[in-house]
Amino acid sequence: MTIATELPAELAPGTAEAPITMLNPDFPFSYDHYLAHPDGLGTVPPELYGTEVAVIGAGLSGLVTAYELMKLGLKPVVYEADQVGGRLRTASFPSAPGVVADLGGMRFPVSGKAFYHYVDLLGLDTQDFPNPLAPATSSTVIELAGKKHYAATPDELPEFFHEVAAAWKAAVNDGAAFSEMQEAIRARDTSRIKELWNGLLPQLDEQTFYGFIAASTSFKEAGFAHREAFGQVGFGTGGWDTDFPNSILEILRVVYTDADDQHRLVTGGAQRLPEALWNHAPSGMAHWPGGTSLASLHSGSPRGAVDSISRAGSGDLLVRERWGREAAYRAVVTTCQSWLLSTRIHTEESLFPSELWTAIERSHYMQSSKTFVMVDRPFWKDIDPETGREVLSMTLTDRLNRATYLLDDGPDKPAVILLSYTWNDDALKWLALSAEERVKLMLHSLEQIYPGVDIASHIVGQPITVSWEADPNFMGAFKANLPGHYRYQQRLFTHFKQDKLPESQRGIFLAGDDVSFTAGWAEGAVTTGLNAVWGVVNHLGGASRPGNPGPGDLLDELGPISLD
Ligand SMILES: Cc1cc2nc3c(=O)[nH]c(=O)nc-3n(C[C@H](O)[C@H](O)[C@H](O)COP(=O)(O)OP(=O)(O)OC[C@H]3O[C@@H](n4cnc5c(N)ncnc54)[C@H](O)[C@@H]3O)c2cc1C
C-alpha cells in the first residue's frame, strides 16, 4: 500500500536503479557519503586532543556525536538521566530474556542511509519488519466500521482500497510534485530538489495534512469515505489520521524519502545500536590508543542527569548534575528533547537567542503508547479449517487498538504481540490505565474482530507497556510540526552554524531527532548529531577535510530557506 512501491515505473524515468535515500529536501546533504569518505569528518588541532566536550543524553544522537568526537581526538563526556539508548529502548520479558519488545523506534527504513552506516559498521543483523501488507507479513486484516477485510497481498483487498491509494497518489503528485521530487532524490540532484521544495514551502507551510487531502481534486472527487479510510489505513505503516492536524510538510518529508517503506528491525532489539556505539572501539582514531571506547573513557557508565547549564565567568559552559557535581566545558551538545531545556534542566536564558527559545517552546510532540504481551508460540499462523485463513493477522482497525503487530522468531518459540501501537488522542486513551486494564481492553477489541480466537490463553508472563509522554525524561514520543512551524524548525536545525551568533551564545549545540526535519525517525537523530560534531569541531578551531565538506560548510548553499 505504499505510494512509493505502487508508482508505475514511467513516473521515475531512467532512474529506476538509483535508490531513494533520506535526502531531506530542506537540506539535501548526503550524510551517507560524508560518513563513508575515506578522509573522515575533519580534524582538530593536535594541541586540543583530549579536550572535554559535554554531550547531554546517551540516546542515538548523543552517542553518534560522542563516538565521532572521540574518533577526532576529543574527549566526550556523556551525561544520561536514565538508560543508554534513549528512545531506542528494548525491554526483555523477564521469564524469557531473549524475547524482546522495542518500546520506541522499532522499524527502520532502508532509505535511512546514515542510520544504516552505523548498523553496518557495528555488524548488527536486521530483518524485514512485519508492516501491514508488507512481504514479511503473511496476512493483514483491515477492520473498519465493523467490516473485516483479509488479505495476504495488497492485490487481494477490495477495489475501494485501491481507489484510496490512487487518490493519495494523485493528491501528492498534483499538489506536491511527488514523482519529480523522488526522481530528483534518486539522482541526488540537489538543485532540482531545492527548486521544487522551495517553491512548495511557502504554499504548504500553513496547510494541515487533512487540509491538503481534503483540498485535493482526487479526494474531493472520491468523497469522504475515501478520506476517512485513508486516515484509518494510510500508507506503509498504517493509520495516519492522528497526524491529520500536523503540517503537510512533515508528511511529505516522509513519503518523498520512502521513510514509510521497506522497514527493517534490528535483530535482538533496537537498543543494541546505541549500546554497540557505547562499547565499540574504533580503529584509526586521531589521538586515543587502540581499544578506547566511549565505555572505557567513562569507566563503564555515563555521568548522571544534568540539572543546569550556565555560562561561567571564564566563558566556559558549566554543566551541573542533579546530585551537585559540576564541570566546565568549552563546548556542550544537548540531545535530549528540547522541551527539557526549559522544564527539567535550568538552562541560562542568555545562552540562546530569544527566537530560538520561541522555537523550542513551540515544538509540538506526539504522544505514543505501545503495549506488548509475550505468547507461548506464534499461534496466529495456525490455519482456521473453516476459512483456510490464518487465525490472527497483522491488524489495522478503527477500534481502540488501531494497530496490532505480530512478531516471531520462528515456530515453537515464544513470540510477541504488540497489541496496540497508538499516537496522540488514541495514545491518550491509554494514559491513565494500568497495564492490565490496557491489555483487557485490547483483547476485548481483538475478540470482536476474531471471535473464537482465545488470544489470552497463549499469553505468558507480564505485559510490557509504555506511554512516552508520561516519562519525565522525554515528555512526548517525538516532535511533529503543526502548520506554520517551518520557521521554528529552520531556527532549530541551523543553530549548529554559529558564525552569526554573538560570542556569548556560542559553544552550546542542539542535536537529537526533534531538531531534525524528520523527527520520529532515527535517521534525524544521527544526522543532527553529525551537525553538532561539525559545530563543535569548528567552534574549537578545527575544520572539515577539503575533500569532504561537512554539513556546516554546505549549509548556506543547500540549507533550509528563510520564509521571512
Ligand atoms: C514510540 C516511538 C516510536 C518510534 N518509532 C520509530 C521507528 O519505527 N523508526 C525510527 O527510525 N524512529 C522511530 N522513533 C524515533 C527514534 O526512536 C528517535 O529518533 C531516536 O531514538 C531519538 O534519539 P535521540 O538521541 O535524538 O533522543 P533520545 O533517544 O530521546 O535521547 C535523549 C537522551 O537524553 C536523556 N536525558 C533527558 N534528560 C536528561 C538530563 N537532564 N540529563 C541527561 N540526560 C537526559 C534521555 O534519557 C535520553 O536517553 C520512535 C520513537 C518513539 C518514541
Automatic annotation (TrEMBL):
Residues 542-564 are annotated as: Disordered. Residues 60-534 form the Amine oxidase domain. InterPro entries: Amino_oxidase (IPR002937), FAD/NAD-bd_sf (IPR036188), Flavin_monoamine_oxidase (IPR050281). It holds the Pfam family Amino_oxidase. Gene3D superfamilies: 1.10.405.40, 3.90.660.10, FAD/NAD(P)-binding domain. GO terms for biological process: amino acid catabolic process. It comes from the Bacteria. This is FAD-dependent oxidoreductase. GO terms for molecular function: L-amino-acid oxidase activity.
